[in-house]
């Protein structure tokens, strides 16, 4: 194929390619005529169209991206909206809970209020008793009145041994300590073995007793028809003397009888036991095992602490107002013990320059011991006006103060009132801090206090 032919074919192909496009745009011959001239421009236009198409694609992509962004934003907003809705739901639930709590609180307050109504009579510290309760408990209410009571002197004191009830355990002959049977502080009974001793003198006396006892038994068996009256009398006297000797040396009657009944000379070994001559508490030990004890040497001291002495130191100027037998009281800590004046010293104490007043006090529950310092109150012969109630009408309150129970307007309604306890004497309590004519419980106070305690317990349990 020559060049000319190639060019013609190329031109023909180009005309056929753009003919439909020209005809579609303009169905006139003028447009068809310009196809050749505008081919280059059209090529550029196609390139522009391609760029525009790419640009359109980019814009579409951006639009899709924007829409995607909007979608994501929508999703985020939707998520936030969901969180908000969830929060609102939780808030609503919380509101319901709070409402439930409020309703529960109201119910609790109503329920508590109901209980409060049940114990309304106890909310002010009072108790109501009906006539049947008061009769069963034996409650008696009386108005307080001023009474003539003996004045009292207050004085410090010291607890001492009651020497009238104190014994000292000592050997009567020289002996060796070989065994102990009690310890310091132990309570012993009368006749209880305290310590075992051994003595040569006791061994000789025991042997003589066994010989005299055998002779006396033989003479008694033979009878007065066989032996002379003189021999009979001598045998009996020797037996009595031998028995008295071992007893004087320290053997007790039960120990002597045991030795004689055995008729065994090997038991005459000099051993014997010192026993307690009265009941009491071992307060002092002054020996060791193996010690050689001399006659009269104190080994053990025993005292009966059921009653003790208290020496009150009273100024001489007022001591003359006190008489033997006057009532008194001894206070140790919070406890008060009744006492009475047993003796008044006629000489002053060399150190304190006071008159010693000896009080006899009953030691309840072994609460007092020698050496303790106490406070005393001793009644005198002079009298004064004071408020007095039975001792059982004054009780300790929950906080430790003394109180009586006062009638509140109507019968059976009582309330505790704090008072000052001046002293207790012969079952009568002298009190202060309350007005005369006040109606108080004089009998059955413990029952009233118990009822108040129960009502208070029930209140606190609500």
Automatic annotation (TrEMBL):
GO process annotations (BP): copper ion export; plasma membrane copper ion transport
CusB-like beta-barrel domain segment(s): 308-381
UniProt GO molecular function: transition metal ion binding; transmembrane transporter activity
Biased composition (Basic and acidic residues): 28-125
Transmembrane segments: none
Protein name (database record): Probable Co/Zn/Cd efflux system membrane fusion protein
GO cellular component: membrane; outer membrane-bounded periplasmic space
Region (Disordered), start-end ranges: 26-126
The entry's keywords: Transport
Keyword Transport attached: yes
PANTHER family per the UniProt record, alphabetical: CATION EFFLUX SYSTEM PROTEIN CUSB
Occurrences of domain CzcB-like barrel-sandwich hybrid (ranges): 165-304
Pfam families documented for this protein: Beta-barrel_RND_2, BSH_CzcB
Organism for this UniProt entry: hydrothermal vent metagenome
Keyword Transport on entry: yes
């Amino acid at each position: 194929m020559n060049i000319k032919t190639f060019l013609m074919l190329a031109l023909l192909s180009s005309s056929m390619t753009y003919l439909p496009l020209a005809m579609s745009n303009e169905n006139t011959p003028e447009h068809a005529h310009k196809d050749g001239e505008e081919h280059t421009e059209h090529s550029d236009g196609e390139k522009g169209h391609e760029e525009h198409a790419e640009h359109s694609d980019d814009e579409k992509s951006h639009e899709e991206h924007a829409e995607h962004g909007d979608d994501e934003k929508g999703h985020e907003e939707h998520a936030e909206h969901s969180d908000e809705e969830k929060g609102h739901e939780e808030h609503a639930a919380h509101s319901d809970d709070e409402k439930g709590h409020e309703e529960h609180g109201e119910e609790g307050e109503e329920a508590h209020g109901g209980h409060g109504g049940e114990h309304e009579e106890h909310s002010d510290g009072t108790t109501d008793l009906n006539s049947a309760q008061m009769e069963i408990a034996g409650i008696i209410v009386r108005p307080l009145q001023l009474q003539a009571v003996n004045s009292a002197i207050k004085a410090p004191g010291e607890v001492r041994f009651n020497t009238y009830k104190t014994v000292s355990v000592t050997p009567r002959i020289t002996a060796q300590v070989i065994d102990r049977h009690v310890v310091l502080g132990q309570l012993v009974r009368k006749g209880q073995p305290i310590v075992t001793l051994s003595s040569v003198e006791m061994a000789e006396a025991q042997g003589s007793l066994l010989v005299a006892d055998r002779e006396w038994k033989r003479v008694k068996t033979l009878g007065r028809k066989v032996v002379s009256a003189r021999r009979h009398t001598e045998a009996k006297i020797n037996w009595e003397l031998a028995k008295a000797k071992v007893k004087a040396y320290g053997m007790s009657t039960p120990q002597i009888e045991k030795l004689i009944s055995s008729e065994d000379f090997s038991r005459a070994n000099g051993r014997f036991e010192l026993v307690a001559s009265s009941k009491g508490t071992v307060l002092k030990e002054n020996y060791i095992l193996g010690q050689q004890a001399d006659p009269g040497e104190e080994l053990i001291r025993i005292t009966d602490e059921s009653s003790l002495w208290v020496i009150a130191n009273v100024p001489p100027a007022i001591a003359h107002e006190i008489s033997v037998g006057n009532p008194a009281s001894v206070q140790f800590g919070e406890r008060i013990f009744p006492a009475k004046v047993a003796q008044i010293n006629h000489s002053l104490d060399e150190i304190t320059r006071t008159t010693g007043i000896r009080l006899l006090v009953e030691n309840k529950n072994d609460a007092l011991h020698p050496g303790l310092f106490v406070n005393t109150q001793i009644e005198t012969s002079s009298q004064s006006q004071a408020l007095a109630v039975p001792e059982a009408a004054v009780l300790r309150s929950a906080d430790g103060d003394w109180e009586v129970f006062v009638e509140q307007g109507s019968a059976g309604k009582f309330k505790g009132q704090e008072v000052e306890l001046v002293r207790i004497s012969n079952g009568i309590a002298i009190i202060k801090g309350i007005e005369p004519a006040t109606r108080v419980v004089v009998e059955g106070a413990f029952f009233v206090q118990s009822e108040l305690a129960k009502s208070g317990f029930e209140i606190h349990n609500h």
